TrEMBL record:
This is 2-isopropylmalate synthase. InterPro entries: 2-IPM_HCS-like, 2-isopropylmalate_synth_dimer, AIPM/Hcit_synth_CS, Aldolase_TIM, LeuA/HCS_post-cat, LeuA_allosteric_dom_sf, LeuA_bact_synth, PYR_CT. It comes from the Bacteria. The keyword Flavoprotein does not apply. Its EC number is 2.3.3.13. Belongs to the alpha-IPM synthase/homocitrate synthase family. LeuA type 1 subfamily. Keywords: Amino-acid biosynthesis, Branched-chain amino acid biosynthesis, Cytoplasm, Leucine biosynthesis, Manganese, Metal-binding, Transferase. Catalyzes the condensation of the acetyl group of acetyl-CoA with 3-methyl-2-oxobutanoate (2-ketoisovalerate) to form 3-carboxy-3-hydroxy-4-methylpentanoate (2-isopropylmalate). HAMAP family: LeuA_type1. It catalyses: 3-methyl-2-oxobutanoate + acetyl-CoA + H2O = (2S)-2-isopropylmalate + CoA + H(+). Mn(2+) binds at D14, H200, H202, N236. One of its GO terms (cellular component) is cytoplasm. The keyword Manganese applies.
Length: 509
């Protein structure tokens, strides 16, 4: 146990700071449950004092997780620490993570505080956090540009005040692996066993994973990561890469992790679906091409002996053949239920019935139904966001002067409402019709369409990012359908429903 690396996942906090990666409460809870399944040790579920939405999401995650430690970030100020303590109150295991910047540039220009004042605030914050929670982590923000002399004073002082984990962020992703190794070794020489050292790397120079590995080599026993390397600016250490490096090159490490690597791909996919941020195709481990062999020589080698060109098996990260044909028009409920269990989902009766009905409809318009089609259906049918609006019909036609006309019907409170609009293109006309029929105007910030599987009749999956007037962040919506305009309308309505549920949550607080 002493030699195991604590995997601290901050997808829901630093990851959510990725531009455009905001998630609603239900999506955060879904991700947290999947992270628990993945086997992470600590989940930083948010920054409780930053918004009501974050506070609510942390509280809900604290209620539902069984084994994983739930943590909230807090600045080194009493009100933040109180919010973090309150939000994590219900968790079986909980942590408060408090931080203050320790580098000269941050202390002088951002905090406008002297090192002595920073030291005082850090000690008081940790002491206070310790009165509210047993497990306290302290971060020296911008540690890797801090003066070692100051760190030698502040780190022992906060350990004395009650911090059991000391996190060393390379906040601006500035350092190289050799520098990180030497830096951690120095800190380790005076911290010894008095606290666990943690590394938090940013990827501005593309070195976050390499730097985290170097830190492990010098004595760090916690690494802060995110799924798909999401995070502020260029992101954080990618969990999937770090974990697979340790697993693949285990002869070089005296440490292991508690991660169930077969849950890596499902977790990556869930986070990509929810945030709308897909890993680039050549991204290590989880990119679409990570296991694709294009050259004839490579394909020949793989066929003769897999290890000629493959150091990781796709199944090691839970990537299963997405093209496996599953069920057809004549498949019954029992076969559908078995398939769902095979794919690792557990649905209640109501969700199962909704997914089965949807599957039957799909069979009417699509000859072959694949595993990924089923996954997409389940993703849509298991949402717990109140469906204030549901789509009942969309029709689009081309008019003269490059204009398009859309007619849309939606159902609200059992009443069908219809309207139509002209637009500069099919998508524009559909979205304008929805704005008119709902009475709520949104601005489309991003639009992506991709096919769920292959074939001319493949399901279209549309992800939209929409800004609504009173929301301070863009909201993401998803829609799938064999018809791309229906998928577009569903995605936009799903963003609208998500926005309405967030507004309701905030107004009720
Ligand atoms: O990058 C950073 O310094 C952080 C801290 C708040 C831990 O995210
Ligand atoms: Zn960070």
């Amino acid at each position: 146990m002493v030699n195991d690396i604590v995997i601290f996942d901050t997808t829901l906090r630093d990851g959510e700071q990725s531009p455009g990666a905001s998630m609603n409460m239900e999506e955060k809870v879904k991700i947290a449950l999947q992270l628990e399944k993945l086997g992470v040790d600590v989940i930083e579920a948010g920054f409780a004092a930053s918004s009501k939405g974050d506070f609510e999401a942390i509280s809900r995650i604290a209620e539902v997780l069984e084994r994983t430690t739930v943590c909230s970030l807090a600045r080194a100020i009493p009100s933040d620490i109180e919010q973090a303590a309150k939000a994590t109150q219900q968790a079986k295991r909980r942590r408060i993570h408090t931080f203050i910047a320790t580098s000269p540039i941050h202390m002088q220009y951002k905090l406008k505080l002297s090192p002595d004042a920073v030291m005082k605030k850090a000690i008081e914050a940790v002491q206070y956090a310790k009165t509210l929670c047993d497990d306290v982590e302290f971060s020296c923000e911008d540690a890797l540009r801090s003066d070692m002399g100051f760190l030698r004073e502040i780190i022992p002082a906060v350990i004395e005040a009650g911090a059991s984990t000391i996190n060393l962020p390379d906040t601006v992703g500035y350092r190289l692996p050799t520098e990180i190794g030497a830096f951690v070794a120095q800190v380790h020489s005076f911290v010894k066993d008095s606290a666990m050292l943690s590394m938090h790397c940013h990827n501005d120079l593309g070195l976050a994973v390499a730097n985290s590995i170097a830190a492990i080599g010098s004595g760090v026993r916690q690494v802060e990561c995110t799924i798909n390397g999401l995070g502020e600016r260029a992101g954080n250490t990618a969990l999937e890469e770090l974990v697979m490096i340790i697993k693949t090159r285990k002869e070089l490490f005296s440490v292991d992790t508690h991660i169930n690597t077969k849950e890596i791909y499902p977790t990556s996919k869930l986070v990509a679906d929810i945030t709308g941020i897909c890993p680039q195709p050549n991204k290590a481990i989880v990119g679409k091409n990570a296991f694709a062999h294009e050259s004839g020589i490579h394909q020949d080698g793989i066929l003769k002996h897999r290890e000629t060109y493959e150091i990781i098996k796709p199944s090691d990260i839970g990537m299963v053949e997405s093209t496996s044909l599953v069920l057809g028009k004549h498949s019954g409920r029992a076969a559908f239920k078995d398939k769902i269990a095979d794919l690792g989902f557990s649905l209640n009766d109501e969700e199962l019935q909704a997914a089965f009905t949807r599957f039957k409809h799909l069979c009417d318009s699509k000859k072959e139904v694949f595993d990924d089609d089923i996954r997409a259906i389940i993703g849509e049918e298991t949402t717990h966001i109140p469906q204030v609006f549901t789509l009942s019909l969309v029709q689009v036609s081309a008019c003269s002067n490059a204009k398009y006309c859309a007619a849309v019907s939606v159902v609200r409170d059992g009443i069908e409402l219809s309207d139509s609009a002209l637009g500069n293109g099919a998508v524009d006309s559909v979205l304008k019709s929805i704005d008119r029929v709902s009475g709520i105007a949104g601005t489309l910030k991003d639009y992506k369409v991709e096919s769920v599987t292959s074939g001319k009749d493949a399901l279209a999956k549309v992800v939209v990012k929409v800004e609504f007037a009173q929301a301070n962040r863009a909201v993401i919506g998803h829609g799938i359908d064999v018809d791309t305009m229906s998928a577009t309308a569903k995605a936009y309505i799903s963003a609208l429903n998500s926005y309405l549920s967030m507004r309701e949550l905030i107004n009720n607080k």
